[in-house]
């Protein structure tokens, strides 16, 4: 700005200066954005395209020279693959239970933390711990909690007389997935608690005062003031969390590796095992592409519905 | 702190100095579980003897060792030499990743000191040699002599005796209604195929690649399933248990028998003293089968300086160096000289290893074996143990893999 003021002595020069300035203003945003965009293109979009391309080929890593185009055969194989359907079903259960459980627990926690009580800052800091711990640490910790020989959970339930024999939570196909879902719920609810708490604090107190003067019950206040007040935050955080939970398999991988049998296989885990362990990159990519498309459909449906509700 | 920094600076200087004068570098991948890693000592001894070569030895975690190795080969960033097992050999050959070293072995002075038979065991299907043995183990059965004595039991020689003993050993020792000791610690997770194989593949008429669906082979799988589902002699967590869990449970006195090799003997003695001993695995259905645990080194075909890489790996299989190497892994040296002077393990475990050698086997040298070990066996075994599929169905899945 100042440089231009000094250099602009004649009217013609001033015009040229503004022209250059305008051009600069038009180019500058692109110039500033391009490093980020180029990096994103290189490390996200390029591998994505490569995955899509690989999914149309028979490509097994230990036969690197054999890269045959086979069209949609990998996808047909997936639809006829029993394990694909088992994994898909587990993924639906995985998302369908984890997210609502995290939201509910997060909401209750946020409402509690929004009350006045001594040591509130400490409680708020403590609540974030599960979210701040690395997934691997959480997974290993819960493996020990669930252990059938030394686990604290079995010990607790035995002492209370709720079970007669120690239950191998992670080794039993009926309980393994549920046990991991509980772990992930515990890990993820602080995220919702913190987000919702932020939303709650942005609601002016006067709304509640006015409502109570008009004789609104606590439930009515919650339904007509609190919920609309946090809906924006809620929609965004549910969307983010759905994508994260859907894609996350580190906790499952550490806790059971997908076992026993296929009892805790989800689609991302199955794609990983196929590609990284069996080195079948063609089929693994096809699974990943299928899962991405399914997730995109869910996200679009969700945004369309909730977008309207929020407006 | 200051001293540490100085030391670091000094070693950095030494490193750069070494790099400046070295004519070639050997990147070597290996996997050691043991925290006392003698690799630095081996490397510095080697570099003193061969000042023109620098060795960069990298310890890769075992769980993803082969995933990393295969991907590095494809990515064009493979090490120059690596520790390798036989089951991976067909795949590595198929990828064109291995350098034939038969001629180098023949002209190597350490060849005569290698124990008999080891070079024959590691020869490839095409008749060439790609591997140089560096350590070996044989799987046998660990048991608790004190518990056997308390119950008046003999060490089981057959599968039938084994089952009886396992049932007797599974008991509630403090009368709280909970089972405190289980007869056998079965490894149902990845790597447990050796346990299953000992009960299955020794049977007459059972073979992993040719007739795994035979009556005898299915009887073997059924035997394992029955031990868990009918008799309850494995801990309930058996379907997911891996190395840490099975060995940990035995050390803690939760199980009375398990199968592993001499690599865990010293840890067991540390935990249990005289209350642990070893014997060959029982005879099942007319034959015995146990796993030969091999470990070799190989020069990769992509190595820039293959002579340097060979010098380094042959150095590891020479008397003295090989002993030091095996002190870290807890396995057995491949040289005759080191074997004769070996004193690292209590005698009873060395003897159990020697007694097991006559019926020790490698898994079939075929590309499918990697998938058998990593996914097909663990998934099928876990499903059979939890009752989702039958023994016949499990063996049929294995047969399908090998018939592809």
From TrEMBL, chain A:
Residue intervals passing through the bilayer: 27-49, 92-113, 125-145, 176-203, 281-303
Keywords: Cell membrane, Membrane, Transmembrane, Transmembrane helix, Transport
InterPro entries in the record: MetI-like (IPR000515), MetI-like_sf (IPR035906)
Cross-referenced PROSITE patterns: ABC_TM1
GO BP field: transmembrane transport
Membrane topology: Multi-pass membrane protein
Record-linked Gene3D superfamilies: MetI-like
GO CC, alphabetical: plasma membrane
Residue ranges of every copy of the ABC transmembrane type-1 domain listed in the record: 88-302
Principal location: membrane
Cellular localisation: Cell membrane
SUPFAM superfamilies: MetI-like
Pfam families: BPD_transp_1
CDD domains: TM_PBP2
Family statement: Belongs to the binding-protein-dependent transport system permease family.
Protein name listed in UniProt: Carbohydrate ABC transporter membrane protein 1, CUT1 family
From TrEMBL, chain B:
Family: Belongs to the bacterial solute-binding protein 1 family.
Keyword Secreted: no
Signal peptide segment: 1-22
Organism: Tranquillimonas rosea
Cross-referenced InterPro entries: Bact_solute-bd_prot1 (IPR050490), SBP (IPR006059)
Cell compartments where the protein resides: Periplasm
Protein name (Swiss-Prot/TrEMBL): Carbohydrate ABC transporter substrate-binding protein, CUT1 family
An annotated GO cellular component: periplasmic space
CDD domains with a match to the protein in the record: PBP2_TMBP_like (cd13585)
UniProt entry tagged with the keyword Coiled coil: no
Keywords: Signal
């Amino acid at each position: 700005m100042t440089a231009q003021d000094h250099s602009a002595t004649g009217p013609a020069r001033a015009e040229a200066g503004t022209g250059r300035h305008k051009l600069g203003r038009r180019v500058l945003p692109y110039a500033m954005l391009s490093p980020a965009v180029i990096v994103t293109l290189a490390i996200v979009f390029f591998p994505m395209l490569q995955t899509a391309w690989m999914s149309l080929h028979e490509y097994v890593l230990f036969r690197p020279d054999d890269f045959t185009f086979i069209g949609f055969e990998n996808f047909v194989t997936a639809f006829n693959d029993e394990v694909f359907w088992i994994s898909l079903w587990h993924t639906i259960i995985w998302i369908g239970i984890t997210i609502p459980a995290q939201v509910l627990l997060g909401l209750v926690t946020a409402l509690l933390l929004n009350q006045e009580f001594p040591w509130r800052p400490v409680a708020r800091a403590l609540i974030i711990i599960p979210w701040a711990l690395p997934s691997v640490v959480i997974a290993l910790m819960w493996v020990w909690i669930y252990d059938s020989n030394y686990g604290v959970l079995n010990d607790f339930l035995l002492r209370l007389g709720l079970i007669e024999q120690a239950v191998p939570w992670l080794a039993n196909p009926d309980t393994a997935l549920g046990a991991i879902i509980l772990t992930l719920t515990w890990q993820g609810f602080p995220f919702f608690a913190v987000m919702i708490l932020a939303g709650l604090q942005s609601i002016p107190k006067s709304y509640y005062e006015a409502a109570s003067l008009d004789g609104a019950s606590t439930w009515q206040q919650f339904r007509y003031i609190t919920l609309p007040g946090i809906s924006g935050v809620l929609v965004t955080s549910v969307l983010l969390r759905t994508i994260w939970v859907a894609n996350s398999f580190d906790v499952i991988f550490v806790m059971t590796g997908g076992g026993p049998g296929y009892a805790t296989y989800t689609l991302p885990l199955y794609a990983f095992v196929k590609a990284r362990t069996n080195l079948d990159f063609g089929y693994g990519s096809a699974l990943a592409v299928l899962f991405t498309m399914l997730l995109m459909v869910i996200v679009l449906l969700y945004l369309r519905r909730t977008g309207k509700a929020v407006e | 702190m200051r001293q540490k920094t100085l030391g670091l600076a000094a070693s950095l200087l030494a490193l750069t100095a070494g790099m400046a004068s070295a004519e070639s570098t050997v990147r070597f991948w290996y996997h050691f579980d043991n925290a006392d890693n003698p690799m630095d000592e081996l490397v510095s001894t080697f570099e003193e003897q061969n000042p023109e070569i620098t060795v960069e030895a990298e310890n890769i975690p075992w769980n993803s060792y082969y995933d990393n190795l295969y991907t590095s080969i494809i990515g064009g960033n493979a090490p120059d030499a690596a520790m390798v097992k036989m089951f991976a050999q067909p795949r590595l050959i198929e990828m064109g990743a291995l350098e034939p070293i038969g001629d180098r072995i023949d002209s190597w002075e350490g060849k005569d000191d290698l124990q008999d038979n080891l070079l024959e065991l590691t020869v490839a299907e095409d008749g060439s040699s790609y591997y140089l043995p560096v350590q070996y183990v044989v799987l046998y059965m660990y048991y608790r002599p004190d518990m056997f004595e308390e119950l008046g039991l003999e060490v089981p020689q057959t599968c039938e005796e084994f089952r009886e003993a396992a049932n007797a050993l599974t008991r509630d020792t403090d009368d709280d209604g909970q089972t405190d000791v289980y007869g056998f610690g079965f490894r149902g997770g990845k790597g447990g195929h050796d346990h299953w194989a000992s009960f299955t593949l020794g049977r007459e008429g059972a073979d992993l690649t040719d007739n795994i669906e035979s009556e005898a082979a299915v009887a073997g799988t059924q035997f394992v399933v029955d031990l868990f589902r009918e008799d309850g002699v494995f801990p309930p967590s058996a379907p997911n248990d891996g190395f840490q869990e099975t060995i940990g449970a035995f050390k803690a006195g939760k199980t009375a028998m398990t199968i592993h090799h001499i690599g865990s003997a010293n840890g067991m003695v540390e935990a249990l003293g005289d209350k642990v001993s070893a014997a060959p695995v029982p005879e099942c259905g007319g034959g015995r089968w146990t796993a030969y645990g091999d470990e070799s080194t190989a020069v990769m075909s992509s190595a820039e300086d293959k002579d340097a890489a060979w010098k380094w790996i042959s150095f590891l299989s020479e008397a003295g160096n090989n002993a030091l190497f095996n002190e870290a892994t807890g396995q057995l040296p491949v040289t005759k000289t080191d074997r004769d002077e070996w004193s690292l393990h209590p005698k009873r475990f060395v003897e159990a290893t020697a007694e097991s050698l006559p019926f020790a086997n490698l898994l079939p040298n075929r590309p499918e074996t990697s998938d058998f070990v990593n996914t097909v066996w663990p998934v099928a075994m876990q499903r059979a143990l939890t009752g989702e599929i039958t023994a016949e169905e499990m063996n049929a899945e294995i047969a399908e893999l090998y018939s592809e």
